[in-house]
Amino acid sequence: MLHPTTVINPKISSTPAIICSCLIFQPLQIFFINKQIFIFIFALLALPLSLLFFSRSLAFHPVQSQILHLEFIAALSPTRFEARHVWKESRETAIALLHCNFLYFVPSFTLSLLAAVSSVVSAESGYHRNPIGVKSVLNAVKFTWRRTLVTSIFVYVILFCYSSVPRTLWSLTGGGVFGSGFVIWVVGSAVEIYLMAVLGMSLVVSVLEERFGWDAIFIGSDLMEGKRVCGWVLSGLMGLVTGLIGWKMEGLKMDSEDLAKKTRWTAVMLLKGWEAVGLAVLYGAVMVWGYVVATVFYCECRKQHVVWEVEGGSVDV
Q1: What is the C-alpha separation between 48 and 17, in angstroms, rounded?
Q2: How far apart (Å, rounded) are the C-alpha atoms in residues 59 and 55?
Q3: What pLDDT sits at residue 205?
Q4: Alpha carbon separation from 157 to 172, 185, 205, 310 (Å, rounded)
Q5: Sequence-separated (6 or more) residues with CB below 8 Å from residue 63
Q6: Which of 17, 200, 253, 265 lies 20 to 30 Å from 221, alpha-carbon distance?
Q7: pLDDT, greater one: 254 or 297
Q8: Distance between the two ends of the chain, CA-based, in angstroms?
Q9: Which residue has the higher pLDDT, 131 or 317?
Q10: How far apart are CA 223 and CA 41, in angstroms?
Q11: pTM here?
């Protein structure tokens, strides 16, 4: 889905300028070009997805605490019979929690897929100063969701497999706050941020090009050549913002748990509900902004790797 038209900004060479352009200036211009579409995406897709995420986190926190409490009691039980009884109760609670998580997963994944495709298509259109309508976005979703679905499965599997690597290295080296444990944490975090940058680029590729799976991931990595540091910084900044929101949410859950010891959980949800809604609105906006940033970075990288197909051949520009 490449357009031989004039883009918003001329080619920018310096790394700080690219970061500022991709993170702030161009996303703002793109938003004003397709502001109605982005408001539509935020209100109908990103915000409901964010509310689902935060409501699940708040609602299931007491159950997760109960499971941890039961496991702690089982580990301290004086007899095997008592420990087995407590473990059984903990396992039944964990299975029920897993079923509830699955019920949340289906609508969450669907909304996430639709939000990603529609945001990327709208951002790419705005990048080339081409306003887009709702019908065009719906058509794009209809023709590209399968590719994005396959690529997102690859992304989740890769991130899941990598998540165990730092913990395994930590346990093999003995961990520790300082020394080898700290080095593993720093290097592991840096690699994870870069991996997220490449995988985010691959999702954009699967939406805008007829690529999916490993092919989209390899193309995304190749496109970042020469701008890998920019991609790493952009991924780190977006991860920092979402991490701060998650940290605030964890604090909110801890406060709710303390209040729940003094009053009913329903009252706690009423007291803390507005704070959670505020975080959900912020997270939904950051989610859409992240898709736009990733799309702008893709377009900047693609300008250096444009391939035009001409009657069965190709010409590199």
Answers
A1: 34
A2: 6
A3: 92
A4: 23, 21, 18, 37
A5: 93, 96, 97
A6: 17
A7: 297
A8: 16
A9: 131
A10: 27
A11: 0.78
Rounded Cα gap, residues 237 and 142, in angstroms: 32
The torsion angles phi and psi of 51, rounded to 5 degrees, stand at -65, -40
Q: Which of 110, 122, 198, 104 is nearest to 149 (CA)?
A: 110
Nearest residue to 240 via CA among 275, 290, 201, 198:
290
Q: Are 229 and 13 in contact (CB under 8 A)?
A: no
What is the 8-class DSSP label of residue 178? S
* Contact between 289 and 27 (Cβ < 8 Å): yes
DSSP annotation of 179: T
Residue with the two structure tokens 């301290």: 76
Residue 120, beta-bridge partner list: none
| Residue owning tokens 């964010």 | 50
Task: Decide if 288 contacts 115 (C-beta within 8 A).
Answer: yes
Non-local CB neighbours of 242 within 8 Å, separated by 6+ positions: 283, 286, 290
Residue type, 76: L
Residue 62: both structure tokens together: 């007491």
CA angle, residues 113, 45, 198, in degrees to nearest 5? 40
Q: Average pLDDT, stretch 34-53?
A: 89
Q: In this structure, what token pair is assigned to residue 292?
A: 């736009």
115-121: average pLDDT: 91
Q: Could you tell me if 113 and 45 are in contact, meaning their C-beta atoms sit under 8 angstroms apart?
A: no
Q: Tokens in use for 144?
A: 């590209």
pLDDT tens digits, 155-171: 988 988 888 777 777 77
Q: How is 237-281 classified by DSSP, letter by letter?
A: HHHHHHHHHHHHHHHHHHHHHHHHTTS-HHHHHHHHHHHHHHHHH
Statement: residue 62 has pLDDT above 70: no
116: part of which helix (H) or strand (E)? helix 80-127
Contacts of 143 (CB under 8 A, 6+ apart): none
By three-state DSSP, how is residue 315 classified?
A: strand
